[in-house]
Amino acid sequence: MTRTRRIVQFFTALAGIALAPSWAAAQSVCSNIAYGKILTEAQWNYCFQQKQDSLGYTALNKGGDTMLGKLVTAPSSNAQAGLALAIGLAPTSPNDGDIWTTSSGLFVRIGGATIGPLGQGAPTSASANLVYAGPTTGVPAAPSFRSLVADDLPVATGSAFGAVKPDGTTITISGGVISSAGASATSIQSGVTNFLSATSGNCAYNNAGKVGDKNCLTQVKTQKFQTAGSFTYTPTAGLVYAQVECVGGGGAGGGANGSGTATAGGGGGGSGAYSRVTLTAAAIGASKAVAIGSGGNGSTGNGGAGGDTSVTTLCVAKGGSGGQQAVNSGGNGGAGGLASGSTGDVTVDGNGGGAGTGSGGTATLGTGGSGAGSFFGGGARGVTLSGGGTAAVGCGGGGAGATISGSASYAGGNGYQGCIVITEFINQ
After folding, report:
1. Are 202 and 217 in contact (CB under 8 A)?
2. Which of 224, 222, 266, 228 is nearest to 396 (CA)?
3. What is the DSSP string of 295-340?
4. What are the residues whose beta carbons fall under 8 Å from the beta carbon of 359, sequence distance 6 or more?
5. Distance, CA of 417 to CA of 228 (rounded, Å)
6. Fewest C-beta atoms under 10 Å: which of 62, 165, 223, 417?
7. What is the pLDDT of residue 159?
8. In 3-state terms, what secondary structure has residue 29?
């Protein structure tokens, strides 16, 4: 029985070789290979060829192969992600198109630059005075909220900005200094804030204060001269420029003289003129002579005129005139100091004194004219009671006129001396 079966199998194999099935038959064989079936060499080759053709490309079978088609992964689900990149270290020399992950996030290399970590989203909040930026040194790091450092700022180069100011000049950079040409030129150095003073040139500051000997304004001081006489003005060290204000002395009020039942009121004195000038440190020099005009003296006659106030010839303010005396009548007020005789960037006439009242008959009591107030005030108020005029009380003010009823004489009030106020702008 066993021998008979072997003989049958032998002849069956010979028949299979002899018949040599066609390719069409081989195709059906490839799809129906079963255990125990014997294929010819042609059948095997055809089956392998069909498997290769069904893929459409050469299968990837080693590291470094290039995929010629698009890679589509399974969609992500609650159970797992469609694609996983193992977390490792950043490559030392990445190439464009490389993608990798580290403990900081996902990174890509594009255009010669590493971009990442990706997917952090925009920051939603931050403390005051912080910036959202990367590392403060050359070592790569994820961006975070931190304080601004010097390395965050660009370094100035020798190239031109190309920005044009309204006056037509171009802003440039040279040696780390940003500057612009022209009458309103400014310069900005690293760590330095600069501004232009209209009268003294460039000013420069840093966090510690003034830089070098630039004409910077760091403080303002005031010097005052309020006593009649001659003095010397010595500017404060570091003076850049000064604003000088001068007021002439005030005139005195006019006297009042009466007889019988007559009434009289002298006129009030005029106030001193006002003058103002701005002087540079160079114009002032080491010192300047100062003169403070005295106030006019009152008497039973016409009031005395106030004296002139000056800082040499640079600032001059004329004194006010005295009020007119009154004899059984009212006297006219004195004129204010004249701007036309004063010198300075700004000159203003002083105010005229008020007129007195009176009559030669048996009228009511006369009134002395009020003294005029100056730029700083200080005029004396006229009186209605018999007696001398009231003296002025402030810089350059005029004295009041006297008043009288009956046979008597009274002197007008004294004017007040002038004054000088010097406001100094200093750079140290």
Report:
1. no
2. 228
3. PPPP-SSSPPPPPPEEETTTEEEPPPPPPPPEESSBPPPPPPPPGG
4. 262, 263, 328, 329, 366
5. 6
6. 62
7. 47
8. helix
- Expressed in percent and rounded to 5, the helix, strand and coil fractions of the chain are 10, 30, 60
Is residue 60 within 8 A of residue 49, CB to CB? The reply is no
Query: Using an 8 Å Cβ cutoff, are 308 and 243 in contact?
Result: no
Find out whether 225 and 247 touch, Cβ atoms under 8 Å.
no
- Number of other residues whose CB lies within 10 A of the CB of residue 276: 19
> How far is 47 from 29, CA to CA, in rounded Å?
8
Name the pTM for this structure: 0.54
E-state strands within 88-147: 99-102, 105-110, 113-118, 131-133, 144-146
pLDDT < 70 positions in the chain: 1-32, 34, 50-63, 119-129, 138, 142, 153-216, 361-364, 428
Tokens of 135: 């590392």
Contacting residues for 299 by C-beta, under 8 A, at least 6 apart: 252, 255, 411, 412
Please report the pLDDT score of residue 137 as a whole number.
Answer: 72
283: left (phi over 0), alpha (psi -120 to 50) or beta: alpha
